[in-house]
């Protein structure tokens, strides 16, 4: 491992360089640890991995907070060593997921914009120690983040002690791409002065008291490449339905020609939608989102996207191209803290079009993003609530069926509500698009069944809705049957 | 009826004075009509009442948008005359409720901050005609609202034609209490420049092109006095539990001494909580809310509250006192448009403590504010979502049982989700208070059952939770039983 002291430009900190094994001696049982990492990019690596190793012999339990999900199987390894007592605000690891669903790890599933806010204002405990991944420490002691900003700024601000992990694998040219703005504590807070997607309102690094840095470690471990399912017939149809809708909205003057700032959840459907933009007539697209994926850079390359703001870069096939030509992208992207990328004030002001993926939605427009059959946590709500709650247009996409048709993604009643009927504007499957704007529940039901449900489930949905309507109510339901589709799936392996 | 032309200080408009019967000739079948009125205060009166009368002989259907609920039985009378095809964004009328639940009127139940925003940006249709209740029209043609601002400013801005209804019953001294700030249309929108509860950022009246005013009518019909159930043993216990919590939060330094700006839903529980503040040690309280009720003015009178910002004044016993001594209150209150009083940007920035009433909540912290047994609309979500979604602390209160114990307000799974587990911090009943901050679902369940459930339902809730946990999951549920309490109530009249 290379120890490149040129990356520590605040010279008095050179003496804080040590091994990860030495650094983890600061981490004590019962502590809250706030660590870098968002969307599998920019996480601290050697420190958590050393902690997982040490805990096999010397058990330790921590509350483990990050930006969002981590690469390098860090959640898996910490979980296997029983280090994680509580996890927040998001995760996407199969081993940890299993422990959460068994009730062994307490998972505080949070809106990603809220962790920083809640820690700052004593709603939840602030970190004792922050472990911050960095490209460098500047002459004035600022910490320059790596491939994500996440919650690193607020963790560093609030923690008593900071461990910096210099990541040798990250191109130093990333310095300058971050824009660190931390809202002051209430009650003395003013407006966040951002009015355009591309504006810079903060500093290039995280400004902290360098005295708080107790250890600096180096790592040579690259970010894990994201792996994305290839687009298939259904994801392409979803993308087509959505792009047709956008084209029509522009044609009738309800959306501006560049649509306005776009947010997109992570995944193959989002990727397909963005790929669809490549061959559309839209131009000057802008993104104000969390994760900048391959598709973001593809749109920049072909001249369709003029600026993308996020809090993380999670790259797969384009990683090498982007990093090698970073000078080209540097004035076209910015990485912000997640309480700025996902901030309700900014989402409302900018008028974001939010596109996120649902596990299932119901005939009245309620959306489940987190729980399989209402009980088993998948990953967490992530930023979908931050955006949906305050978006100009809140859109959810999903395939109309799953497991070869054993599951209908359109159900009488969702088994868990993450986004409710009040917040949803548009639902899209490969079957079509339901425009729910301004509609009452009974109107929505007919549209959703007609446009989004799979043909193999339409008759059953219409039958449920018709019989519920006979009973009456603003939102007609048959309480004894509302969740029976899920129960049937649990018992018989199919909703059919 | 007095026609006082001194109230129309823009003299060229004098010729637009006419009777309500004449004015309603502008209203055509199929139109969207945007009318003043919020919380039963400040509604237009003679125009809708004349419309209800005329429609008995000459049927007409409109989309009827207001600020929120109306006094003077206007919704009832328009509904009985079958005038309302679609109603938004809120209502609280028994006759209209019945028509909504029968599927005869389409009800677009909206977050109250969103109607203005959605009309402005073509998500829903903007009004053809605005009917605006006014104290006066100023020398420069501004319309001065009456006891509420609601959506009047945006309706007037967007409508092709405006009917002004001068309300003789409103004390002209109210002129100056309103602060009309209308965010500009995106994409040219900047921050809303409000950083303190008491700040004024707009104009005293609604500035429009006076050419759009096609009719001015006068009325002598007073606002309907609000009627509030007296505090009982349970509401007083809820108030005590909440105030004990606040005292403790201040003592340990998690809340400032004046708590920070308070929002409160309308109703007897909120009134009891605010009455509780009178005998507390808190001082310099501030309110940033929708409706200013009697209790607001009581707290101002006793020197506990220094400023209250709302979008409506709904007064019962204190109406006369407040109106006769309005000079005393004028620098201590302000009335704003509802997209400012309920704005997510401001709620997040100011750090609002939001206190709203639930119909029911479940063991995991999901809240139902709108639907009785999941199907029948009560009033609508109102502002509870605007505040809860972005509050510093989101608190819901309710009595632990209803209908003499036939209904438990704490259930295994709510029958409709208006506010989900991600957004709820504190739940309170007369039994106690559950502090859910930072907890995972299984931890919340035990706290909610222990602290909030009625003793007569505790065993059954624990039994459900224990058996669900045996099945596993992050949020354990038994899908065949989750809604069985509601189904049993529907079938047998009791959850017991």
From TrEMBL, chains A, B:
Active-site residue list: 290
What Gene3D superfamilies is this protein classified in? Answer: 4-hydroxybutyrate coenzyme like domains (3.30.750.70), Acetyl-CoA hydrolase/transferase C-terminal domain (3.40.1080.20), Glutaconate Coenzyme A-transferase (3.40.1080.10)
InterPro entries with a match to the protein in the record: AcetylCoA_hyd_C, AcetylCoA_hyd_C_sf, ActCoA_hydro, ActCoA_hydro_N, NagB/RpiA_transferase-like, Succinate_CoA_transferase
The terms under GO molecular function for this entry are: acetate CoA-transferase activity; acetyl-CoA hydrolase activity
Signal peptide positions on this chain: none
* Highest rank taxon of the organism: Bacteria
Q: Which residues form the Acetyl-CoA hydrolase/transferase C-terminal domain?
A: 320-464
- Domain Acetyl-CoA hydrolase/transferase N-terminal, chain residue ranges per copy: 13-217
Biological process, per Gene Ontology: acetate metabolic process; acetyl-CoA metabolic process
* One Pfam family from the record: AcetylCoA_hyd_C
Q: Which family does it belong to?
A: Belongs to the acetyl-CoA hydrolase/transferase family.
Protein name (Swiss-Prot/TrEMBL): Uncharacterized protein
- What lineage is on file? Bacteria, Pseudomonadati, Pseudomonadota, Gammaproteobacteria, Moraxellales
